[in-house]
């Protein structure tokens, strides 16, 4: 029987709102929101050895900020134009391994990641002009060129929503709903599904090889509706959130 080991099992006090992977430094970043007292903090975890670089990291803006992107060992945070607007304005760069604030600029906004780095624009200028930027310094380097600055591949694979495959090994629970989230990797088959337990929905995660279930976890209990996809695959690592408050990474 294949033995699967958890690389990461990190619990947080708030809700895991967003995860972002930097494939250049193999770092997983988490945005944690505390809705009751309207604050947000951040964490960085190495996907090489499971070490937590920092946790409970905050900036001066307690609530109106969030993860924008990650690239080259730097977490890029954004701010909001106002509490009543979803529009992003202003950026800050945080070093992954130390949590050190590298720079911030309240006039720059993020457009997208290219293979050569992030593309910023100055929110004060219309029409917008896009620049390839240095994520470690926050400086605009040169005009963005879509021919050479192609889209960045974060190497994340998301599962498909499909009918429950009939060739899976026998599952210990019965699926509720018409679709499950399913993905294959090498000889592994990964499925997330919902069940009805004592009138309440539960969400499960199973990993199977060719013959049997070799790993399982309960992702959510006592939920009121079907949840979106519960996991992603990054290289040979299964990344998922448990109970909205714990980040787990399983080596496959």
Question: Could you provide a short overview of the structure?
Answer:
The protein is mainly beta and 252 residues long. The chain has strands at residues 6-11, 15-22, 27-34, 39-46, 52-57, 65-71, 74-80, 88-95, 101-105, 108-114, 117-122, 130-133, 140-143, 156-157, 160-162, 176-185, 188-197, 200-208, 213-223, 231-234, 237-242, 246-251. Helix content is 0%, strand content 58%.
Account of the 3D structure:
- This protein is an all-beta fold and 252 residues long.
- Helix content is 0%, strand content 58%.
- It has strands at 6-11, 15-22, 27-34, 39-46, 52-57, 65-71, 74-80, 88-95, 101-105, 108-114, 117-122, 130-133, 140-143, 156-157, 160-162, 176-185, 188-197, 200-208, 213-223, 231-234, 237-242, 246-251.
- The strands form 5 sheets. Strands 1-22-21-20-14 form a 5-stranded antiparallel beta sheet, with no helix packed on it. It has a 5-stranded antiparallel beta sheet with strand order 15-16-17-18-19, with no helix packed on it.
- Strand 20 and strand 21 form a beta hairpin.
List keywords for this structure.
single chain, 252 residues, mainly beta, 5-stranded antiparallel β-sheet, 22 strands, globular
Content-based structural category: mainly beta
Supply Rg.
Answer: 20 Å
Question: Which sequence of strands runs across the widest sheet?
Answer: 1-22-21-20-14
The major β-sheet equals:
5 strands, antiparallel
What is the helix/strand order? EEEEEEEEEEEEEEEEEEEEEE
Provide mean pLDDT, rounded. 95
